[in-house]
Amino acid sequence: MLIDFALTVISSAAVSLALSGLLLWITKTWIGERLKGAIKDEYNTKLESHKAQVKAEYDTQLETHKARLKAGTDVEVERLKSSLSIVAAQQNTSFSQLHTRRVDVIANTYSRLKVLHDSVANYVKPFVSTGDKSKEERRAEVYAASQDFTPYFSQNQIFLTKGVTASVAKMNQELVSISNLFIYAIDLQDTPDVQQWIKITEKFDGSVKEALDGLEDELRSLLGDVKG
């Protein structure tokens, strides 16, 4: 009986010890899991808080950077606008001055050419009225008009278009050619060559007049005159 009692007690103690160990293990495991969960929650909370803080700082810095860029861009845009306005004003002034200069050249070129044309016409005309200038005087007028026109045209033709320049040069050449032919075939001859005189007159009234009319149209066009 004593042995049975002892065995019972020992068995009960072993069971209690085993139960206690199991309970202790369960308790430690539960506490450990709770601690890990609490630590994880705290870590996640701090991580989200840190992420939110970093994002807020990043957004603030980004907006600040955008504002600085926009302010810098606005300044550069205004500076560029100002520069372009200055350049445009300078170009308008230059264009206006150039146009004024061009108008002067066109006017002076035509004026000198017309004086040469009229002096040649007066020189080669077949009929001389009483009181008209002598042949020598009229010849001198042609020479003076040519001397006035030629250097001016040479120095200022850059302001004319190529087409107008070519037309003016051709007209000048025609007038000089007619004058020279008249001098040596009519004026300096004891007996003028009547046939040559007739040809000169016909040419002057025909092709020369036509060329002058065409040149006048070109000059008007150059000045902005639009044909209706």
Characterization of the model:
The model has no long low-confidence stretch (mean pLDDT 79). With 228 residues, this protein is mainly alpha-helical. It has a domain at 95-222: Four Helix Bundle (Hemerythrin (Met), subunit A) (Up-down Bundle). The longest helix is centred in the N-terminal third of the chain and has 123 residues, at 2-124. The protein has four helices and no strands. The protein is rod-shaped and about 190 Å long. The chain has helices at 2-124, 135-156, 162-187, 194-222. 88% of the residues lie in helices and 0% in strands.
Secondary structure topology:
Layout: H1 2-124, H2 135-156, H3 162-187, H4 194-222
Concise summary:
This protein has 228 residues and is mainly α.
Structural class: mainly alpha
Give the ordered list of helices and strands.
HHHH
- Could you tell me the number of beta strands? 0
In terms of quaternary structure, what is this? single chain
What are the low-pLDDT stretches, counting only 5+ consecutive residues below 50? none
Helix content: over 70%
What is the annotated CATH architecture of the domain at 95-222?
Up-down Bundle
Mean pLDDT: 79
Radius of gyration: 55 Å
Could you tell me how far the N terminus lies from the C terminus, measured between alpha carbons in angstroms?
A: 148 Å
Q: What would CATH call the class of the domain at 95-222?
A: Mainly Alpha
- CATH-assigned fold name of the domain at 95-222: Four Helix Bundle (Hemerythrin (Met), subunit A)
- The total of helices stands at 4
Shape: rod-shaped
* Biggest sheet features: none
Which strand-content bin applies to the residues?
A: under 5%
